[in-house]
Amino acid sequence: MKIIAGNSNLPLAQAISEYLEIPLAKATIRRFSDMEAFVEIQENVRGEDVFVVQSTCYPANDNLMELLITIDALRRGSARRITAVIPYFGYARQDRKTGGRTPISAKLVANLITAAGVDRVLTLELHAGQIQGFFDIPLDNLIVGPVFVPEIEKRFAGKESQLVIVSPDVGGVVRARALAKRLNADLAIIDKRREQAGVSEVMNVIGHVEGKICLMVDDIVDSGGTLCNAADALIDQGATAVQAYVVHGVLSGAAVDRISKSKIERMVITDSIPATDAVKNASNIEQLTVSRLMGEAIRRISNEESISALFI
Length: 312
Known about the structure:
By secondary structure, the chain is α/β, with parallel strands linked by helices.
Protein backbone atom coordinates (compact mmCIF):
# COMPACT_ATOMS: atom_id res chain seq x y z
CA MET A 1 0.00 0.00 0.00
CA LYS A 2 0.93 3.67 -0.21
CA ILE A 3 -0.01 6.45 2.20
CA ILE A 4 -0.30 10.03 1.00
CA ALA A 5 -0.67 12.94 3.42
CA GLY A 6 -2.53 16.14 2.68
CA ASN A 7 -1.57 19.36 4.44
CA SER A 8 -4.44 19.38 6.95
CA ASN A 9 -2.94 17.02 9.56
CA LEU A 10 0.63 16.06 8.77
CA PRO A 11 1.51 15.00 12.37
CA LEU A 12 -1.29 12.40 12.42
CA ALA A 13 -0.40 11.13 8.95
CA GLN A 14 3.21 10.75 10.04
CA ALA A 15 2.16 8.89 13.19
CA ILE A 16 0.00 6.51 11.13
CA SER A 17 2.94 5.99 8.79
CA GLU A 18 5.21 5.12 11.72
CA TYR A 19 2.65 2.68 13.16
CA LEU A 20 2.39 0.86 9.83
CA GLU A 21 6.15 1.12 9.24
CA ILE A 22 5.47 2.46 5.76
CA PRO A 23 6.98 5.83 4.75
CA LEU A 24 4.67 8.50 3.41
CA ALA A 25 4.64 8.58 -0.38
CA LYS A 26 6.32 11.54 -1.98
CA ALA A 27 3.82 14.12 -3.15
CA THR A 28 3.75 17.86 -3.69
CA ILE A 29 0.70 19.87 -2.70
CA ARG A 30 1.16 23.57 -3.29
CA ARG A 31 -0.71 26.73 -4.19
CA PHE A 32 -0.55 28.96 -7.25
CA SER A 33 -0.44 32.70 -6.69
CA ASP A 34 -4.25 32.89 -6.82
CA MET A 35 -4.41 30.10 -4.16
CA GLU A 36 -5.51 27.35 -6.55
CA ALA A 37 -4.33 23.98 -5.24
CA PHE A 38 -1.97 21.84 -7.31
CA VAL A 39 -1.10 18.22 -6.53
CA GLU A 40 1.66 16.11 -8.01
CA ILE A 41 2.24 12.51 -6.91
CA GLN A 42 5.97 11.90 -7.24
CA GLU A 43 5.87 8.10 -7.02
CA ASN A 44 4.40 5.42 -9.24
CA VAL A 45 0.95 4.47 -7.95
CA ARG A 46 -0.21 2.26 -10.84
CA GLY A 47 -1.97 -0.79 -9.39
CA GLU A 48 -1.36 0.35 -5.80
CA ASP A 49 -3.73 0.40 -2.81
CA VAL A 50 -3.53 4.09 -1.84
CA PHE A 51 -4.74 5.80 1.35
CA VAL A 52 -5.07 9.60 1.41
CA VAL A 53 -5.00 11.03 4.95
CA GLN A 54 -6.77 14.38 5.06
CA SER A 55 -9.02 15.93 7.72
CA THR A 56 -11.46 18.47 6.34
CA CYS A 57 -10.99 20.81 9.30
CA TYR A 58 -10.18 24.54 9.20
CA PRO A 59 -9.70 25.82 6.56
CA ALA A 60 -12.38 23.32 5.57
CA ASN A 61 -12.85 24.39 1.96
CA ASP A 62 -9.12 24.42 1.17
CA ASN A 63 -8.59 21.02 2.77
CA LEU A 64 -11.61 19.55 1.00
CA MET A 65 -10.32 20.76 -2.38
CA GLU A 66 -6.88 19.30 -1.62
CA LEU A 67 -8.53 15.95 -0.94
CA LEU A 68 -10.59 16.03 -4.13
CA ILE A 69 -7.66 17.03 -6.31
CA THR A 70 -5.38 14.40 -4.75
CA ILE A 71 -8.00 11.71 -5.40
CA ASP A 72 -8.28 12.84 -9.03
CA ALA A 73 -4.49 12.76 -9.44
CA LEU A 74 -4.37 9.20 -8.08
CA ARG A 75 -7.26 8.03 -10.27
CA ARG A 76 -5.55 9.44 -13.36
CA GLY A 77 -2.35 7.74 -12.19
CA SER A 78 -4.13 4.36 -12.35
CA ALA A 79 -4.16 3.57 -8.63
CA ARG A 80 -5.91 0.21 -8.10
CA ARG A 81 -7.94 1.41 -5.10
CA ILE A 82 -8.19 4.82 -3.43
CA THR A 83 -9.33 5.17 0.17
CA ALA A 84 -10.00 8.62 1.61
CA VAL A 85 -8.95 8.59 5.27
CA ILE A 86 -10.83 11.51 6.81
CA PRO A 87 -10.23 11.60 10.59
CA TYR A 88 -12.52 14.63 10.91
CA PHE A 89 -15.35 14.84 8.38
CA GLY A 90 -16.16 18.52 7.92
CA TYR A 91 -19.70 19.68 7.14
CA ALA A 92 -21.03 16.70 9.13
CA ARG A 93 -23.22 18.95 11.27
CA GLN A 94 -25.20 19.94 8.16
CA ASP A 95 -26.73 16.49 7.87
CA ARG A 96 -30.41 17.50 7.42
CA LYS A 97 -32.61 20.42 6.44
CA THR A 98 -33.07 22.64 9.51
CA GLY A 99 -35.52 24.98 7.80
CA GLY A 100 -36.86 26.09 4.48
CA ARG A 101 -34.33 26.63 1.70
CA THR A 102 -31.38 25.24 3.67
CA PRO A 103 -28.81 22.76 2.29
CA ILE A 104 -27.80 19.27 3.31
CA SER A 105 -24.12 20.03 2.88
CA ALA A 106 -22.89 16.70 4.26
CA LYS A 107 -24.63 14.95 1.36
CA LEU A 108 -23.10 17.41 -1.12
CA VAL A 109 -19.61 16.71 0.26
CA ALA A 110 -20.27 12.96 0.02
CA ASN A 111 -21.24 13.41 -3.63
CA LEU A 112 -18.09 15.44 -4.34
CA ILE A 113 -15.79 12.85 -2.76
CA THR A 114 -17.50 10.02 -4.65
CA ALA A 115 -17.45 11.89 -7.96
CA ALA A 116 -13.71 12.57 -7.54
CA GLY A 117 -13.14 8.83 -7.91
CA VAL A 118 -12.57 7.46 -4.42
CA ASP A 119 -13.35 3.78 -3.83
CA ARG A 120 -14.02 3.85 -0.10
CA VAL A 121 -13.93 6.18 2.91
CA LEU A 122 -12.48 5.68 6.39
CA THR A 123 -13.51 8.19 9.03
CA LEU A 124 -13.79 8.60 12.79
CA GLU A 125 -16.96 9.20 14.84
CA LEU A 126 -19.27 10.84 12.31
CA HIS A 127 -21.47 13.51 13.89
CA ALA A 128 -24.55 11.76 12.55
CA GLY A 129 -24.73 8.08 11.69
CA GLN A 130 -27.01 8.66 8.72
CA ILE A 131 -24.13 10.28 6.83
CA GLN A 132 -22.94 6.74 6.11
CA GLY A 133 -26.00 6.42 3.89
CA PHE A 134 -25.04 9.54 1.95
CA PHE A 135 -22.28 7.50 0.27
CA ASP A 136 -22.91 4.85 -2.37
CA ILE A 137 -19.45 3.41 -1.73
CA PRO A 138 -18.15 1.52 1.33
CA LEU A 139 -17.60 3.70 4.41
CA ASP A 140 -16.02 2.61 7.69
CA ASN A 141 -16.94 4.81 10.65
CA LEU A 142 -14.55 4.09 13.51
CA ILE A 143 -15.58 4.62 17.13
CA VAL A 144 -13.18 6.12 19.62
CA GLY A 145 -13.82 3.66 22.45
CA PRO A 146 -10.49 1.79 22.04
CA VAL A 147 -8.70 5.12 22.60
CA PHE A 148 -10.77 6.60 25.45
CA VAL A 149 -11.60 3.48 27.49
CA PRO A 150 -8.00 2.44 28.41
CA GLU A 151 -7.15 6.03 29.36
CA ILE A 152 -10.22 6.35 31.58
CA GLU A 153 -9.62 2.97 33.22
CA LYS A 154 -6.02 3.90 33.99
CA ARG A 155 -6.77 7.38 35.31
CA PHE A 156 -9.74 6.41 37.45
CA ALA A 157 -8.49 3.04 38.70
CA GLY A 158 -10.14 2.34 42.06
CA LYS A 159 -12.80 5.03 41.49
CA GLU A 160 -14.95 3.14 38.99
CA SER A 161 -18.02 3.23 41.27
CA GLN A 162 -17.88 7.04 41.35
CA LEU A 163 -17.97 7.50 37.58
CA VAL A 164 -20.99 8.71 35.62
CA ILE A 165 -20.84 9.08 31.85
CA VAL A 166 -22.78 12.15 30.74
CA SER A 167 -24.19 12.96 27.32
CA PRO A 168 -24.27 16.77 26.96
CA ASP A 169 -27.35 16.50 24.71
CA VAL A 170 -29.96 13.97 23.67
CA GLY A 171 -28.30 13.44 20.28
CA GLY A 172 -25.18 12.00 21.90
CA VAL A 173 -26.92 9.42 24.08
CA VAL A 174 -25.98 6.42 21.89
CA ARG A 175 -22.28 7.37 22.02
CA ALA A 176 -22.35 7.98 25.80
CA ARG A 177 -24.31 4.78 26.49
CA ALA A 178 -21.81 2.69 24.53
CA LEU A 179 -18.92 4.12 26.56
CA ALA A 180 -20.81 3.70 29.83
CA LYS A 181 -21.47 0.06 28.99
CA ARG A 182 -17.80 -0.62 28.31
CA LEU A 183 -16.84 1.04 31.60
CA ASN A 184 -19.76 -0.47 33.55
CA ALA A 185 -20.67 3.06 34.66
CA ASP A 186 -23.96 4.90 35.14
CA LEU A 187 -25.39 7.23 32.49
CA ALA A 188 -26.77 10.76 32.76
CA ILE A 189 -28.18 13.07 30.08
CA ILE A 190 -28.27 16.85 29.79
CA ASP A 191 -31.58 18.13 28.43
CA LYS A 192 -30.82 21.39 26.64
CA ARG A 193 -32.57 23.84 24.39
CA ARG A 194 -30.68 25.65 21.64
CA GLU A 195 -32.31 28.97 20.80
CA GLN A 196 -29.86 29.80 18.00
CA ALA A 197 -26.72 28.34 16.40
CA GLY A 198 -23.76 28.37 18.78
CA VAL A 199 -25.87 29.27 21.84
CA SER A 200 -27.31 26.63 24.16
CA GLU A 201 -29.23 26.74 27.40
CA VAL A 202 -29.14 23.84 29.85
CA MET A 203 -32.62 22.89 30.98
CA ASN A 204 -32.30 19.80 33.17
CA VAL A 205 -30.04 16.94 34.27
CA ILE A 206 -31.53 13.49 33.80
CA GLY A 207 -29.84 10.95 36.08
CA HIS A 208 -28.10 10.85 39.46
CA VAL A 209 -24.84 12.82 39.57
CA GLU A 210 -24.64 13.95 43.20
CA GLY A 211 -21.29 12.96 44.70
CA LYS A 212 -20.12 11.54 41.38
CA ILE A 213 -17.24 12.20 38.98
CA CYS A 214 -18.93 13.19 35.74
CA LEU A 215 -17.27 12.43 32.41
CA MET A 216 -18.98 14.25 29.57
CA VAL A 217 -18.63 12.49 26.22
CA ASP A 218 -19.18 14.25 22.90
CA ASP A 219 -18.04 14.01 19.29
CA ILE A 220 -17.37 17.70 18.56
CA VAL A 221 -16.51 20.71 20.70
CA ASP A 222 -16.64 23.95 18.71
CA SER A 223 -17.46 27.07 20.71
CA GLY A 224 -17.46 25.10 23.98
CA GLY A 225 -20.67 26.73 25.18
CA THR A 226 -22.66 23.52 25.48
CA LEU A 227 -20.01 21.72 27.53
CA CYS A 228 -19.35 24.70 29.82
CA ASN A 229 -23.07 25.15 30.51
CA ALA A 230 -23.44 21.43 31.10
CA ALA A 231 -20.51 21.47 33.56
CA ASP A 232 -22.18 24.28 35.52
CA ALA A 233 -25.43 22.30 35.68
CA LEU A 234 -23.65 19.14 36.86
CA ILE A 235 -21.78 20.97 39.62
CA ASP A 236 -25.05 22.62 40.69
CA GLN A 237 -26.55 19.12 40.95
CA GLY A 238 -23.80 18.04 43.34
CA ALA A 239 -21.17 16.47 41.07
CA THR A 240 -17.76 16.42 42.74
CA ALA A 241 -15.82 16.87 39.50
CA VAL A 242 -16.49 17.29 35.79
CA GLN A 243 -14.19 16.20 32.99
CA ALA A 244 -14.81 15.91 29.24
CA TYR A 245 -13.79 13.43 26.55
CA VAL A 246 -14.37 14.84 23.07
CA VAL A 247 -13.34 13.25 19.77
CA HIS A 248 -12.94 16.29 17.52
CA GLY A 249 -11.54 19.48 19.05
CA VAL A 250 -12.68 22.14 16.56
CA LEU A 251 -12.32 24.81 19.30
CA SER A 252 -12.99 27.90 17.21
CA GLY A 253 -12.96 31.52 18.34
CA ALA A 254 -12.66 31.98 22.09
CA ALA A 255 -13.45 28.33 22.87
CA VAL A 256 -10.09 27.51 24.48
CA ASP A 257 -10.27 30.55 26.77
CA ARG A 258 -13.87 29.72 27.66
CA ILE A 259 -12.99 26.13 28.56
CA SER A 260 -9.90 27.19 30.51
CA LYS A 261 -12.09 29.40 32.73
CA SER A 262 -14.91 26.86 33.08
CA LYS A 263 -15.67 24.25 35.73
CA ILE A 264 -14.33 21.53 33.44
CA GLU A 265 -11.27 20.25 35.30
CA ARG A 266 -9.84 18.50 32.28
CA MET A 267 -10.79 18.02 28.65
CA VAL A 268 -9.36 15.24 26.50
CA ILE A 269 -9.50 15.56 22.70
CA THR A 270 -7.94 13.49 19.94
CA ASP A 271 -5.52 14.52 17.22
CA SER A 272 -8.12 14.08 14.45
CA ILE A 273 -7.70 17.86 14.17
CA PRO A 274 -4.20 19.29 14.73
CA ALA A 275 -3.82 21.21 17.97
CA THR A 276 -3.43 24.98 17.75
CA ASP A 277 -0.95 26.87 19.91
CA ALA A 278 -3.82 27.89 22.19
CA VAL A 279 -4.78 24.23 22.71
CA LYS A 280 -1.16 23.23 23.36
CA ASN A 281 -0.80 25.97 25.98
CA ALA A 282 -4.13 25.34 27.72
CA SER A 283 -3.65 23.89 31.20
CA ASN A 284 -6.80 21.75 31.20
CA ILE A 285 -6.82 20.42 27.61
CA GLU A 286 -4.97 17.22 26.68
CA GLN A 287 -4.69 15.39 23.37
CA LEU A 288 -4.69 11.64 22.71
CA THR A 289 -3.61 10.16 19.40
CA VAL A 290 -5.85 8.04 17.20
CA SER A 291 -2.91 7.03 15.00
CA ARG A 292 -2.82 3.42 16.23
CA LEU A 293 -6.59 3.00 15.78
CA MET A 294 -6.62 4.48 12.29
CA GLY A 295 -3.38 2.79 11.32
CA GLU A 296 -4.75 -0.62 12.32
CA ALA A 297 -7.97 0.06 10.39
CA ILE A 298 -5.91 0.96 7.30
CA ARG A 299 -3.88 -2.24 7.64
CA ARG A 300 -7.05 -4.32 7.93
CA ILE A 301 -8.66 -2.66 4.91
CA SER A 302 -5.56 -3.33 2.83
CA ASN A 303 -5.44 -6.96 3.98
CA GLU A 304 -9.22 -7.44 3.55
CA GLU A 305 -9.66 -8.19 7.27
CA SER A 306 -12.49 -7.34 9.65
CA ILE A 307 -12.59 -3.82 11.10
CA SER A 308 -15.52 -4.48 13.41
CA ALA A 309 -13.28 -6.93 15.29
CA LEU A 310 -11.38 -3.88 16.59
CA PHE A 311 -14.34 -2.95 18.78
CA ILE A 312 -15.31 -6.28 20.28
